């Protein structure tokens, strides 16, 4: 359930009352003391590498179509630079990079290349705007992996940058494992590529081995030696990638490399949603990101990559704006900033109040209010007791169950008035899905047939036709309980009534056939809506709601 606290207005507090500035973010004022003295850029560029470093997440392989969908979503989100892939890697990857580069996106499209002409030629074939050239420079990489000298490394870097500039590309350069590279040598590489016109220099913390203050100091030292715009690319091996990215910006970086949901090699990269929100909240730095789209893009990336977002993930996790504990819910309902450091809507999320063993009266009451249900003091006490008992048994109490318990307490869980007598649904290839229902509504038999986009849609339409066209489907939720083609599914249906928009009802059913299970859940919701309607109309004694 989403809640709207009474104090959602931009500024609150009447005369003498305290005021809340309308930034939608409420972090500690103490941060200001720390950061005020530091010169910070007004705006930071975001390079998203979900499609390159993100795709290096173990077991992730995206199709070209899916990559294009993600690129379009990142473009809409406002990402400045999309690292679309590593074209030399495979024909498929080259094709995907080209599709993205020629899709007419507003974002700059970039391809990853080693410091090699063949790699840069593959990027040129992909029609990208820019190349991100990388070459390892740390001792261990030079000696054990590349087996080349420092001089050879500089020569390779210079040749690659020169070649890409000669071909009209924007060139960003990364000394891979920069944070474990001797700083004097790093300066030497940077100076050499600056001489041949490199456009941006990235500082990768390839194996996530920095701390935020070290990153600040490291970037400060590099900043002092070059005028070229700097980027940071931080990995999360110690869970410090976002903090290190912020540290890098504090040291003078103008661009941050990120991935959606923090996907990436090993423990992943700095998460776009966290970096963007933290830059804004703590440093007051703007990005081009439309933060209201963060939750949507996060879900899309999760669906297409198959990598679930952990529930307690900052900003986009399911629990990021969920509240269960009674004290918290009480606070949230009177002023959201008591327990939320930012408003959920600014990142495209909704607040939810979860029923559990820590729930109190306020949570339960606010939940019931949404369904137009009011319980007296004793009934509420009983309901909270049962909610806690249910939750203590380890089960998750959803709206449908809460609703059923509330109805039981209210004595309104009566014998069903609407019964299903017959039901058929047909579907197939080149065939319009059709369903027919015969309902017995308090002794009156009604029959209706409808078509739909699928058998469930047709069935729900037929039931609506038989009962009342004023009924509207507010929510349909389907969950697989077990795996396999004979899996058990759980369907939850939320219905409303256009004649009385304040009425809502829920029905839930479990079964092995999603069509009949959906029909059963609808019958339950219809019966509850019937009772709601009678009592809302003050006609508890009447028999007919429709
Ligand atoms: O982590 C890293 O060093 C990289 C390079 C390709 C920049 O991803
Ligand atoms: Zn990386």
What would your notes on this structure say?
This protein has 546 residues and is of the alpha/beta class. Helices cover 38% and strands 19% of the residues. The relative contact order is 0.08. Mean pLDDT is 89; it is low at 1-20. Bound molecules: 3-methyl-2-oxobutanoic acid and zinc ion.
Q: Helicity range of the residues?
A: 25-40%
- Integer count of domains: 4
Number of helices in the DSSP assignment? 17
Biggest pleated-sheet summary: 8 strands, parallel, barrel
Corresponding CATH superfamily of the largest domain: Aldolase class I
Give the termini separation.
Answer: 28 Å
Topology readout:
Elements: H1 30-35, E1 45-48, H2 64-77, E2 81-85, H3 91-101, E3 108-114, H4 117-125, E4 130-136, H5 139-146, H6 150-166, E5 170-176, H7 183-195, E6 200-205, H8 212-223, E7 230-234, H9 241-250, E8 255-258, H10 272-283, H11 294-305, E9 322-323, H12 326-334, E10 352-353, H13 361-370, H14 377-392, H15 399-410, E11 418-428, E12 431-441, E13 444-451, H16 455-467, E14 471-480, E15 489-497, E16 504-511, H17 514-536
Parallel strand pairs: 1-2, 1-8, 2-3, 3-4, 4-5, 5-6, 6-7, 7-8, 9-10
Antiparallel strand pairs: 11-12, 12-13, 14-15, 15-16
Helix pairs in contact: 2-3, 2-11, 6-7, 8-9, 9-10, 12-13, 14-15, 16-17
The structure holds 3-methyl-2-oxobutanoic acid and zinc ion (ZN).
């Amino acid at each position: 359930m989403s809640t709207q606290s009474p104090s959602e207005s931009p500024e609150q507090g009447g005369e003498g009352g305290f005021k809340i500035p309308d930034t939608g973010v409420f972090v500690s004022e103490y941060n200001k003391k720390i950061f005020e003295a530091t010169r910070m850029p007004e705006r930071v560029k975001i390079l998203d590498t979900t499609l390159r470093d993100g795709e290096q997440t173990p077991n992730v392989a995206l199709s070209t179509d899916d990559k294009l969908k993600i690129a379009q979503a990142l473009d809409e989100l406002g990402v400045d630079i999309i690292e679309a892939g590593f074209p030399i890697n495979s024909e498929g990857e080259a094709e995907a990079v080209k599709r993205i580069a020629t899709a007419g996106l507003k974002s700059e499209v970039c391809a990853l290349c080693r410091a090699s002409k063949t790699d840069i030629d593959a990027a040129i074939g992909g029609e990208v705007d820019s190349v991100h050239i990388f070459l390892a420079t740390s001792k261990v990489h030079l000696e054990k992996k590349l087996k080349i000298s420092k001089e050879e490394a500089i020569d390779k870097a210079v040749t690659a940058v020169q070649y890409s500039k000669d071909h009209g590309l924007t060139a960003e350069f990364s000394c891979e494992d920069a944070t474990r590279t001797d700083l004097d040598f790093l300066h030497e590489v940077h100076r050499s590529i600056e001489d041949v016109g490199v456009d941006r220099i990235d500082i990768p913390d390839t194996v996530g081995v920095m701390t935020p203050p070290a990153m600040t100091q490291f970037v400060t030292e590099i900043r002092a030696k070059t005028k070229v715009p700097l980027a940071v690319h931080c990995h999360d091996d110690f869970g410090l990638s976002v903090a290190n990215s912020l540290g890098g910006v504090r040291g003078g970086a103008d661009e941050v490399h990120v991935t959606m949901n923090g996907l990436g090699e090993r423990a992943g990269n700095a998460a776009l949603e966290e970096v963007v929100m933290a830059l804004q909240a703590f440093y007051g730095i703007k990005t081009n990101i439309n933060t209201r789209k963060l939750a949507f893009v996060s879900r899309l990336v999760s669906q297409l990559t198959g990598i679930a977002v952990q529930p307690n993930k900052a900003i986009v996790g399911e629990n990021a704006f969920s509240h269960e504990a009674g004290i918290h819910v009480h606070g949230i309902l009177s002023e959201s900033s008591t327990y939320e450091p930012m408003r959920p809507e600014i990142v495209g999320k909704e607040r939810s109040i979860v029923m559990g063993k820590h729930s109190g009266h306020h949570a339960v009451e606010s939940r019931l209010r949404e369904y137009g249900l009011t319980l007296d003091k004793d009934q509420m006490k009983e309901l909270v007791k049962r909610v806690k008992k249910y939750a203590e048994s380890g089960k998750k109490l959803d709206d449908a169950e809460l609703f059923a318990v509330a109805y039981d307490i209210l004595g309104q869980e009566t014998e069903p008035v609407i019964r299903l007598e017959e039901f058929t649904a047909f579907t197939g290839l080149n065939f319009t899905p059709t369903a027919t229902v015969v309902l017995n509504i308090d002794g009156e038999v009604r029959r209706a047939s409808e078509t739909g986009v699928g058998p469930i849609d047709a069935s729900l339409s037929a039931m609506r036709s038989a009962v009342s066209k004023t009924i509207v489907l507010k929510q349909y939720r389907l969950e697989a309980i077990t795996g396999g083609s004979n899996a058990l599914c759980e369907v939850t249906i939320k219905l409303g009534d256009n004649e009385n928009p304040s009425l809502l009802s829920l029905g839930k059913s479990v079964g092995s056939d999603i069509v009949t299970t959906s029909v059963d859940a609808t019958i339950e919701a219809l019966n509850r809506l019937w009772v709601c309607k009678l009592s809302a109309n003050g006609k508890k004694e009447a028999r007919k709601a429709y």
